[in-house]
Design a protein that fits this description.
- Helices cover 37% and strands 22% of the residues.
- The chain is α+β, with helices and mostly antiparallel strands and 296 residues long.
- The longest helix is centred in the middle third of the chain and has 41 residues, at 80-120.
Length: 296
């Protein structure tokens, strides 16, 4: 007798597929997947090895969150074409879930890095770091826009990118370096949104790759002008030329209750005096270009 035609008990068949026999009993009761044979004397269910591919298809679809109704409809008239269409639809859903989970992981990594920074940071320090080019969504703002209006602008912009939650992205403020250099420390021209895995396209703001000055400010915003004066003085002492924008990001919002404990991370791209001939964009809705690299 062909081995594939041999019958298996419900327990054996369930164990072979890594499920509980009650699942097979339920599938039988709802008419989704019936046993090959039912003993008329005692009602025991028996399954054929040849039924395995069909059950595995059902289990795969259930793992993809396909509803019982959808699976039942598919089983009534299953074909290569109908399965292909069903799997294509579920692969798109799965791709969206993967993208969301990747975004969540990136957010978690950012929070983790921020917490590590909090535990080791020296608030008085100004350092030079290297950063890669980033792609940002920006929202233009002015002094006349209220906080409520800013929230509405951010919400409207993030909705364009189908974010599941606000914390799937990072947010911050932008102020032109030209404003800082003339003492206009409250001349914020834009809010930025950093969305993980956002592909480049026209209209997005590109932060330059290269050297940045990084500093921190603790407390409310009234003390930020003093911190910026310190940063600009540091740049001058080290023959560095700030350009483009200063990018401000809150790094401890999730673990504080008082504005006095709020810490802002400030990052400003810089070049040395030999690289000051580059045209830099000051429009927050247009790409900012990095300085031209010198060849050795």
């Amino acid at each position: 007798m062909d081995e594939k035609n041999k019958l298996l008990t419900i327990g054996q068949f369930a164990a072979m597929h890594g499920i509980h026999k009650k699942t097979l009993m339920w599938y039988d009761e709802i008419g989704l997947f019936q046993p090959a044979v039912i003993n008329p004397d005692n009602g025991y269910r028996f399954y054929s090895y040849r039924q395995s591919p069909v059950l595995e298809t059902i289990l795969l679809l259930r793992e993809l969150d396909v509803s019982i109704r959808e699976i039942r409809d598919f089983m009534k008239s299953r074909s290569a074409g109908s399965l292909k269409c069903l799997l294509e639809e579920k692969m798109k859903d799965l791709d969206r879930q993967i993208t969301h989970l990747q975004a969540v992981r990136t957010t978690l990594c950012t929070h983790h890095q921020n917490m590590a920074t909090l535990l080791t940071m020296d608030l008085s320090e100004i350092s030079i770091i290297e950063k890669e080019e980033r792609c940002l969504v920006t929202v233009a703002v002015s002094k006349d826009i209220s906080f409520e209006e800013k929230v509405e602008l951010i919400t409207a912009e993030t909705e364009k990118y189908h974010l599941g939650r606000l914390h799937d992205a990072s947010y911050g403020s932008m102020i032109p370096v030209s404003s800082l250099q003339t003492g206009n420390y409250d001349d914020y021209s834009g809010l930025f949104i950093e969305i993980p895995f956002l592909a480049y396209k026209n209209g997005l703001h590109i932060t330059p790759g290269g050297s940045y000055l990084r500093a921190f400010h603790k407390g409310d915003w009234s003390g930020i002008p003093k911190r910026y004066r310190e940063i600009l003085a540091y740049a001058g002492q080290h023959d560095l030329v700030p350009y483009g924008f200063s990018y401000e990001t809150g790094i401890n919002e999730t673990v504080i209750d008082r504005i006095e404990d709020y810490i802002v991370q400030i990052e400003i791209p810089v070049s040395n005096y030999a690289r000051t001939d580059t045209a830099l964009s000051l429009d927050p809705l247009l790409p900012a270009h990095s300085p031209r690299k010198e060849t050795a």
